[in-house]
Amino acid sequence: MKGYHLYQSCIEACLRCSAICRHCASSCLEEKNVQMMTGCIQLDMECAAICSATAEVLSLGGSQAKALAMICATICDACSLECAKHDNWHCRECSDICHNCANQCRDLPVEAVHVNR
Question: For 38, which of 4, 29, 44, 55 is 20 to 30 Å away at the CA?
Fold first, then answer.
């Protein structure tokens, strides 16, 4: 078994994280001091992109699924920490979702480690 069914919980976490990161970035643009939010917005957009790509590669059962999931976990951790610095509802939500996604990416099943095909 490989691909979507093996990685389903991680794929769903990545897709949710991508959507929430985009939402957070958009919401940050509406903050009174947008300049203070630039780091958060940048990480939100990077995290959203990596999460989307990770979900796509995992659904294919790609040979680099585990490696990409580890990269995704790293950026999700960074985004979670950045969002946790801000006292607003969208950043708090994003921080929690990113933290969960990072954990899902780190916890891919052992079968996720592929040898060269």
Answer: 55
Please give the full DSSP string across 40-74, using - where no structure is assigned: HHHHHHHHHHHHHHHHHHHHHT-TTHHHHHHHHHH
Cβ atoms of 79 and 23 within 8 Å: the answer is no
Q: How far is CA 79 from CA 2, 7, 87, 96, in A?
A: 29, 22, 15, 10
CB of 77 within 8 A of CB of 61? no
Domain of residue 57: give its range.
4-111
Q: Is residue 10 part of a domain?
A: yes
The two structure tokens encoding residue 17: 């994280």
CATH number reported for the structural domain that contains residue 18 in this entry: 1.20.1270.360
Per-residue pLDDT of the chain (117 residues; tens, 9 = 90+): 577 888 999 999 999 999 999 999 999 999 999 999 999 999 999 999 999 999 999 999 888 899 999 999 999 999 999 999 999 999 999 999 999 999 999 998 866 554 444
Number of structural domains in the chain: 1
